[in-house]
Amino acid sequence: xxxxxxxxxxxxxxxxxxxxxxxxxxxxxxxxxxxxxxxxxxxxxxxxxxxxxxxxxxxxxxxxxxxxxxxxxxxxxxxxxxxxxxxxxxxxxxxxxxxxxxxxxxxxxxxxxxxxxxxxxxxxxxxxxxxxxxxxxxxxxxxxxxxxxxxxxxxxxxxxxxxxxxxxxxxxxxxxxxxxxxxxxxxxxxxxxxxxxxxxxxxxxxxxxxxxxxxxxxxxxxxxxxxxxxxxxxxxxxxxxxxxxxxxxxxxxxxxxxxxxxxxxxxxxxxxxxx
Length: 275
Description:
Distance between the termini: 51 Å
């Protein structure tokens, strides 16, 4: 379908406000590139429409879309691209399609905030700004290179999480994580299958066992909430790794099956790393 653009300065997402006089429809390709900071809060619930292809919010826009009690609602087969230079968008992945209301991709590349308040997002990609995934949102894969993110509790774990930079704070399970850079805070009592911490990465591990862990950067259990076994399969330590092995409380982390690589000699800092 041809691109449809929202009218400059519009505060509604109703059909008449779009350049094609339709807006949200099955397979639609929509762009919000308004030069403004207006609040868009009318006709934001488009969950009665079949999945669109994508919605792109450009850096020209710095306003707010939806509210906590009345969020923007749509499902996208290709993705939701938020490059807004400011503002807050409350969004739930929802449509009239008979499926789990799953949007393929949320790409957050602007300085604003995306609050995910429902549905399923197969992958979230983030390079700056703030992304918040609430308890009602299921997320399968996270790829973050900057900014800050918060993933509140949900019974469905994130399958794979990749962090290149920024801060990622998680209160739901993560099956596998790869921390190449930035700071990862894991605050949930849920086991991890495998974890990797590169030289520029930092992990604040606060709960759950880890089966396979490889550390070349910083890893701390200083804020551990419950006793946990680290390396139930393997625990690999590279030279230069900084590992805090004791918590500030009475709970104990038991490190097992340790293997040193390239002369790896883990160190234990006197305090919590990033505490």
